[in-house]
Amino acid sequence: MGKRIIQQARGHGSLTYRVRKKAYQYRIGYPLLTGKGKVVDLIHSAGHSAPLAKILADGKVFYNPAFLGMAVGDEISLGEGSKPGDILPLSLIPTGSSVYNIESHSGDGGKMVRGAGSSALVTKKVGEKVFVSMPSKKEVVFEGRCRATLGVIAGHGRLDKPFVKAGNVYHRMKARNKLWPRTSAVKMNAVDHPFGSGRGKRIKSKIAKRNAPPGARVGHLRPRRTGRRKR
């Protein structure tokens, strides 16, 4: 009798395949206020690649990725300013400035460009639209009301240090509930995957049902046709 394959086990949900709540206890976002804020602490978060800044503004605390060179006690401005760490709408940011933690829609608290060492570049403004060159070099159009943080995110050397041991990678992936290592289906045993076993390393042709449960949706997913097209 076969056992539940790993895709089904993860889809079913258990403590084994569930991320720790503590990893995401800090929620990144912008407050709906203007004025001055103060960095009261720099925090290491297991769920984020960059260090987070704990900022106090008008009696409210919020978290934002720290910029390169940030220190405890630094002051930032909300709604105005021109120095790294200041949070303001894209329409008020000069072209050629580096920004990060950009709102995809006004008021969502920042969803884009949040990885360690990353930043985007404000390229041009056309009316109410602002064009931003992303780290992937793709140009994206935003509304001028969308907010962003000036500067470059700290932690740019994160990928320079080698992991050395597979155990270090395991614990890093475990902290964020990532599936690692990713093993090819044909390398598994027959009880672990429909494509498993070493008999003739050919992936079996299989059409998954439309309402198949997680883990059973392998092979062709509702194809229009299968097989080689005859001429």
Molecular structure report:
- By secondary structure, the protein is mostly beta strands.
- The protein folds into 2 domains: 73 residues, Ribosomal protein L2, domain 3 (Irregular), CATH 4.10.950; 130 residues, SH3 type barrels (Roll), CATH 2.30.30.
- It is 7% helix and 24% strand.
- The protein has a 6-stranded antiparallel beta sheet, with no helix packed on it. The protein has a 4-stranded antiparallel beta sheet with strand order 3-2-1-4, with no helix packed on it. It has a two-stranded parallel ribbon with strand order 11-12.
- The mean pLDDT is 88.
A few lines on this structure:
With 231 residues, this protein is mainly β. It is 7% helix and 24% strand. It has two helices and twelve strands, in the order αββββββββββαββ.
Overall number of structural domains: 2
Secondary-structure element pattern, one letter each: HEEEEEEEEEEHEE
Please give the CATH architecture of the largest domain.
Roll
Give the overall shape, derived from the CA principal axes: elongated
Q: How are the strands of the biggest sheet laid out side by side?
A: 5-10-6-7-8-9
Radius of gyration from the alpha-carbon trace, in angstroms? 23 Å
The share of residues in helices is: under 10%
Share of residues in strands: 15-25%
Distance between the first and last residues' Cα: 43 Å
Based on secondary structure, the structural category is: mainly beta
Largest sheet: 6 strands, antiparallel
- Mean pLDDT across the residues is 88
Task: Enumerate how many helices there are, as a single number.
Answer: 2
CATH class of the largest domain: Mainly Beta
Low-confidence stretches: none
